[in-house]
Amino acid sequence: MRGAKILDCCKVETRDYPDPTPQGEEVVVRLEAAPICGSDLHGLYQTPGEKDWIPGHEGAGVVVAVDRPRVLKVGDRVAASAVFSCGTCDLCRAGYSIYCRHSKGTYGFGLNGVHAQYVRMSERALLVMPDSMTFEQASLCLDPVGTPYHMYKRTQTTAAHVVGVFGAGPMGLGAVCVGAFLGAKVIAVEPAAYRRNLARKLGAAEAVDPAAGDVVRQIRDLTKGYGLDRAVECSGEAEPLYWGLELVRHFGHVAIIGERQESKINPSNHFLRKEITMSGSTCFPLQEFDEIARMYERGLRAAEMITHRFTVDQAAEAYAIFATKQTGKVIFVPKK
User: What distance in Å separates the CA atoms of residue 112 and residue 17, rounded to the nearest whole number?
Assistant: First the structure.
């Protein structure tokens, strides 16, 4: 089979690999859609050194080979989650396999991932797709749709709320799309004009350019001084989180999705005197997959964030164009 290989910082090629074979409850999936994630970019592609595994942790495809499966069979259409979980710890039983206490590894980060024609994955890492869901829709469930959806559930976001989404990369675009679908007024903040325009297409009522001036003042002006009920930090940068904390109203909620090790807060003004809540989300509990499927059935337009499609043989081009930030979601699809 063909699969991507990250050789060094910003250097990718496509190589021949042995076809995977099923083993125990691990089955072989033929990939039909496999996006590149921001964590692939920042955690793998833009870091020095050769990576010894095939990247990619978001994908969907068809089971083509099994050994001793418990549930799946050849021909099942499945969406991938990222972790080879134990399936028995308290977090797995609650559906949060992403936080498995006894994980055997993460696909695309140590274990061979989905930026290939085929992948071997644990049954526990695969979700059977409903007939109504396309492969491209399913491939977006893990990160850009499922994570914002879970975040909006936790923050109890409704159509009565004004939501600020800081950063309109794929995760932010998902937060825009799902928030607008839920009826909220969404204001996107993004420096790249391409992505601001895409955010508007996906439902943002406003799209703010940080280069146009003080972001806090711009949003206060747009909301007639109201500010935000919910702030969603998707950029992974320190300053946007501070903007969100400044803008959210009393008893509001700030949610963090973008990865960041450090940031600035003002505990007295942000927490003590406004009584806001702050939370973070990495993924979604697997039982919410059915709820996501129903959103698609009711018209969620998330697949419109896909702007570029490549075959795995074009992996170098796909990663390079995604790194320019002049894209929405970039995905691998089979040759036609």
Answer: 11
Q: How far is CA 225 from CA 213, 218, 247, in A?
A: 16, 10, 10
3 three-state secondary structure:
strand
Q: Is there a single domain that holds both residue 148 and residue 263? A: yes
Looking at residue 259, what is its pLDDT?
A: 81
Residue 262 confidence class, pLDDT cut points 50, 70, 90 = confident
Same domain, 309 and 249: no
Asked if the structure places residue 286 within a domain, the reply is no
Inter-CA distances, 216 with 42, 114, 157, 158, Å: 27, 40, 21, 23
How many domains does one find in the chain?
2
pLDDT tens-place string over residues 46-73: 999 999 999 999 999 999 999 999 999 9
Average pLDDT of the chain to the nearest whole number: 96
Residues 194 and 110 grouped into a single domain = no
Residue 288 lies in a domain: no
